[in-house]
């Protein structure tokens, strides 16, 4: 199975984008910069962020600059107040850690942390905010704040008031308490704008002395509730555009617009304001590259290779070579170097039959997963394959033998064209022993673009259906009941009762492949009674529908041979033959049919029809004269 976590392994040719973004951050040389990575859910924003982080770690210049990366995920702080202050606290903790080895810098880091604590309190509102704004304790919370005011640097006291600066010396403890109590005397109100500027100045100075560029990655913003998203963006403003700072914000632009609409609901803001809100925070907008068929094919191929390697059917050396060669191929695809089936099979090894089949599967799935509702979304493609391999794991314990391409083909129609999947499932009945003649016929028709698909394939999305029908393997000749049984996680499946005996099924299979009368076929017919022979004849007739040309004697062997042994089946055979498309009938089918007395009335009707081909009509007339 493939996890849903971000990765630094580049299957999507994101490396060039990560290189460009990392270079932008380096070229800033301490100048504030903000980058917005935009893209929909599951397109790979987090993976791209991780790749950028890896490149920055290799760009440090000892003594001049070190990139310190802090990742903030507001989704973990879903409640409104938590997200507002968590980012500030995360930055404060990081600078405290960086300054820990230098006593002078440590004191400055603690000053920064004090101001962060003050700003966090101001964000709380109520008694805390009122106390800070007025300098007078308001309520129990305000009194508590004033008592420990030295910790927050309130009342204009010097940093020596910080109880953290005291050691275990009793005199210092007492002094600290006395000074803390002095805060209960007339205090000075806090000027929040001044505190914000002081915090920014202190942090900027500290980063410069540490020779550090602080890079803050804000991820999963588009998973948050609107209030949390907006509060996070508001907190970002306190840190934005400081020297030696950089922000990389990964979020779907459309989601941010929606959050802004919710935040300013009732104010009558325009769509332009929604767009500008995020744009004002972002200097460099970067969209995650959209994937086309070429990229989707490469991604699927690498995922399938990865799984095959884990299963021991793909050599590690070849897998490592493919991980390098396929992304390189994508880099030059703009000049026509497509990720073709031949290219993928060469990477997999032409001698490795299972891998060749998997590469054909990637080739077939890619265009349909690109143009359908999946839209080549990497996360959805992973989930698609996870479902396929899960069903494969469930098949073996239940005695079901199905290969990955067959499972994938069925799940594809379930995932991308549910009405068609339901229609096909409804046709899988005991009457055809799990086989769907209409599907078999449609798979033949789909190969010719000039021919229209029959129902139910031409409803909903005929273009998808035509491509899907041409995917390997063909499902028309398969018993689809095992596939439907494994897909009960998506729908309830009923298959009905099966009244055929083992000998009846053997006869059915023999009639499907029979091209002429032969002793083993006659023996198989005689091994059953008339009822079983009738069921076998009807089912074999349905199963051969897609291969029937209506011009060869072998096309009617399925009807003729059972009637020789059981004449009472003639009525049933006549009904099946009456449904023949008269316009398609050729002269080759006439002689063997004319020998059967039960078929002659049908031949007379064909002869009288204006739709019958002239050569077939001549053949009927010739047989009549010869008789």
Automatic annotation (TrEMBL):
Domain named KAP NTPase: residues: 16-393
Organism for this UniProt entry: Aquariibacter albus
InterPro entries: KAP_P-loop, NTPase_KAP_P-loop, P-loop_NTPase
PANTHER family with a match to the protein in the record: NTPASE KAP FAMILY P-LOOP DOMAIN-CONTAINING PROTEIN 1, NTPASE, KAP FAMILY P-LOOP DOMAIN-CONTAINING 1
A Pfam family reported for this protein in Swiss-Prot or TrEMBL: KAP_NTPase
Gene3D superfamilies: P-loop containing nucleotide triphosphate hydrolases
Record-given protein name: NTPase KAP
